[in-house]
Each structure stands twice: as structure tokens, then as C-alpha cells.
Amino acid sequence: MSKPYDIIVIGGGILGLSSARHLLTHLPNLKIGIIEKGTSLAQQQTGNNSGVVHSGIYYRPGSLKAKFCVEGRNSMIEFCEKNEIPFDRCGKLIIATSPDELPRLNDLYERGIANGVEGLEKVGPERASEIEPHVTTIEALWSPATAIVDYNAVTNTYAEQFQEMGGDVHLETELLEIKKLSTGTVLETSQGIYETKHLINCAGLHSDRIAKLMGIELDLQIIPFRGEYYTLEKEYEYLVKGLIYPVPNPELPFLGVHFTRNIKGYVEAGPNAVLATAREGYRKRDFNLRDLSETLRFSGFWKVAFREWRIGLDEVNRSFRKSIFTKDLQKMIPTIESHHLKTGGAGVRAQAVRKDGSLIDDFVIEKSAEAVHVLNAPSPGATSSIEIGKYIADLARDTFNLN
Ligand SMILES: Cc1cc2nc3c(=O)[nH]c(=O)nc-3n(C[C@H](O)[C@H](O)[C@H](O)COP(=O)(O)OP(=O)(O)OC[C@H]3O[C@@H](n4cnc5c(N)ncnc54)[C@H](O)[C@@H]3O)c2cc1C
User: Fold this and answer.
1) Which domains, ranges and CATH numbers included, belong to the chain?
2) 233, 218 in Cβ contact below 8 A?
3) Kind and range of the H or E element at 211?
4) From the CA of 40, how far away is ligand 1's center (Å)?
5) d(CA 347, CA 307)
6) Nearest residue to 281 (alpha-carbon basis) of 346, 203, 189, 231
7) Is the confidence at residue 315, as pLDDT, over 90?
8) 43 CA to centre of ligand 1 in angstroms
9) Pocket flag, ligand 1, residue 221 (CB < 6 Å)
10) Mean pLDDT of all residues belonging to the chain
11) How far, in Å, from the CA of 385 to the mean position of ligand 1?
């Protein structure tokens, strides 16, 4: 067996790569490897998201999300400029379509201002229709700093830089078992045994399982929520110039179905949020007995289900009936019709839920003597990836005494 690693990062998504890259930048003598079970990087959440570089409007001031997103937006744009990764500062309009949404729109404005979101302003219907000519609104928030990017390209650039500094990326290598020894940790993978002194768990939809494999007691579990998208037919793409979002339900960690212009030019509408019957359940028919039975045996899931059953049913209804999805979109753009939309892709969110039934809103990053675990990294995790990577690298350096 070759020399043991100082650190192995589990998961080749945007957070695993960002953390590994930061560690090697500051501690170049470490031997660091990434193991990823997919055939390429970023095949899960990172490669199936909306591609938005959020500006930091939604998040509770003082939360990790607020801090990492506002700083992360700037560092992401700087990184893209420096590495010639295409991005577009197309801006985002959050639109209120009924008077009862106005207090929540105002709350969002105050949060955005408290978080220091650049250029955020309240706009009336006239200004809103100059920005997005096809929307209908009574009042809106305009965030000119919000941008779009391809997070696959960002992840691959992190990976190139990590490998140039001497880091190893092992694809098609699934972590199966972890054994602790007095000298370190042995990882049994689908490609054989790896030895490492420390671990960083960035396994996204499977991060709770990896933590449990290390004997960590958790008060939470990952519940997978699929988000389905439609794509606007080419001849109707003119209806959306940038990003158009509804006022979200403040009780839920999801932003509501929205229109997103993709950096490749097409326009997506979505994602909704339906319980997935498999952690990697990208299609309605995907089913995994272990995943589903784990969800159904988890008390936190039933507490969410009893509390939010009405919203859950609406989401399922919208998932199966395009006419209902279209109706929601028509609240924002009344001229959208069902035949303007074709079925698009889907992403699955790793949403951590506590045993008491709370849907965890903020990022959760925990440490133990030998490991750092990312246990909740929903949106804006990709936007914040550089800042989260720095935070994890600092935490690992201090916890593992790497100086
Ligand atoms: C539908 C959707 C829309 C979103 N939109 C946005 C957005 O517009 N802007 C934004 O900032 N954020 C957005 N997000 C959030 C963002 O995508 C995530 O925060 C981010 O991708 C998390 O990255 P990650 O590296 O933690 O997870 P992932 O990208 O899921 O990576 C985890 C990796 O671990 C690997 N893995 C798991 N188990 C094992 C194992 N046992 N062995 C080896 N490898 C393993 C997986 O294969 C995977 O590649 C969105 C998320 C979703 C799902």
C-alpha cells in the first residue's frame, strides 16, 4: 500500500473540490486525495442546479448563509474573471403578485440591506417591466448583482488547480466502509483500500451516512427533495431576460419555482420540491428501497409530513400536472402557456431535517477529532463554495493540528 494520505475528501462536488484546493493552497506539503463515486466530478447537486450566483438577499443576518453568500458571490465572480469562466451579471427580479406578499417582500428587502447586498432596490411595476417586459407585478425587488454561471466549469477548474498542486482525484471510487485504527483511518472503497489520517465529508446526499459510518451520533437526517425543471421552447425564450423569482414562503428553505436564464442561453422554469423516493432519484420512477425506508423510519420526516402535508400535496399535484405548474408561472408571466414549456432536467436537494421535524435552513458543518462533516449545504452552497472551502480548510487545519 502507498503512503497514507494526510486527508481524504469524500465527494467530488463543488464543496469537496473547493475545500481540497484551499487546503493545498495553504498547506502544500500535505498529501490530499478526493474520492468520488461518479464517472466524473459534479454529477449530483453541483451539476444539476439552477446555476445562479446568489447575492445574499434571503438569508437571516448573522447566519452562515448570509456571511458566506455575500462574500462568496464576490469571490466567485473574481474567480470566474481570473480563470476566464463565462458568467453573466444578468440580475434578478423578485416579484410580488398579490398585496398579501408585500410585507414579505419588504422583509426580504430589509434582510438584503442588512446583509449588504450590492445595488438592491425596490421597484414599482413600471421599472419592473423595463427590466423584464413580460412580468406582471405590484412591487418588486431588483438585485442587479445576481449572476449566472456554469458550476460544472467552476468545479472542474477547482479540480485542475488542485491536481496541479499535487492533489489526487480518484473517480469511480465509492466509499463503502470506514475502519478506525490507532494510526489513522482505513477506507474500504469500490477500488480497494485507502489509508488516511483525516477525513473531510462532502458527500452531499449521503453525508449523514458517511458521518454515521464514522460513529458520529446525529440529530439530523438527509431527506432528498427532487426539483423538476421545464425548459422554455426556443421561440419563447424572449419572454425572460434574466432571473425572475416569486416571493418565497418564509417557512420553507426552498425559493419557489422561478425562471432562470442559463449561461448556455436557454431558459428554465423550476424547480419544484417533491419528496424523492431515492437519494439520487432524478426521475419520478426512480426508487431505492434502502433510501425510502430510511426516510419513512425517521421521526423527523413524519413531523414535517404532518405539518406541511398541504404544501406537500400541492407539490405532488404540480409535479404530475403541467397545467398547474404553468398556472404558477402565469402568476409571474401571464402570457406563458403550457405548450411553451418542454420537460427539462431535475436536481435532488440534500435537505437536512432534525428529529424534531425542523427543516434546517443554515449550513451545518461539524467537526470531530478525525473529520470535518458538511451535513447541510443547500442553496446558496455553490455560490458560497469558495468561502465554505476556506472555512472547512481552516477548521481542518485547526482541528487536525496541521501547522
Ligand atoms: C435543484 C437545485 C438547485 C440549486 N440551485 C442553486 C443555485 O442556483 N445556486 C447555488 O448557489 N446553489 C444552488 N443549489 C445548491 C448547490 O447545488 C449545493 O449547495 C452544492 O452543489 C453542494 O455541493 P456538494 O459538493 O456539497 O454536493 P454534491 O454536488 O452533491 O457532491 C457530493 C458528491 O459526493 C459524492 N459521494 C456521495 N457519497 C459518496 C461515497 N460514498 N463515495 C464517494 N463519493 C460519494 C457524490 O457522488 C457527489 O458527487 C441548488 C441545489 C439543487 C439540488
Assistant:
1) 5-46+152-219+361-399 (3.50.50.60), 221-354 (3.30.9)
2) no
3) helix 207-213
4) 13
5) 24
6) 346
7) no
8) 8
9) no
10) 96
11) 11
How many contiguous H segments (helices) and E segments (strands) does the chain have?
11, 20
- Output the CA angle 345-351-356, nearest 5 degrees: 150
Report the residue among 15, 45, 257, 366 best suited for mutation to probe ligand 1: largest number of ligand atoms under 8 A from its CB: 45
CA distance 277 to 331: 30
Per-residue model confidence as pLDDT tens digits over 332-371: 999 999 999 999 999 999 999 999 999 999 999 999 989 9
Q: At what angle do helices 64-82 and 151-164 cross, to 10 degrees?
A: 70
Mean pLDDT of 52-58: 96
Please give the Cα distance from 216 to 213 (Å, whole number): 7
Task: Write the DSSP symbol of residue 360.
Answer: P
> Ligand 1 within 6 A of 144 CB?
no
Quick check: CB of 174 below 6 Å from ligand 1?
yes
Cα of 303 to ligand 1 centre, how many Å?
25
pLDDT one-digit tens code per residue, 70-129: 999 999 999 999 999 999 999 999 999 999 999 999 999 999 999 999 999 999 999 999
Q: Alpha-carbon distance 309 to 315, whole Å?
A: 10
Helices of type H across 226-349: 289-296, 299-307, 309-320, 322-332
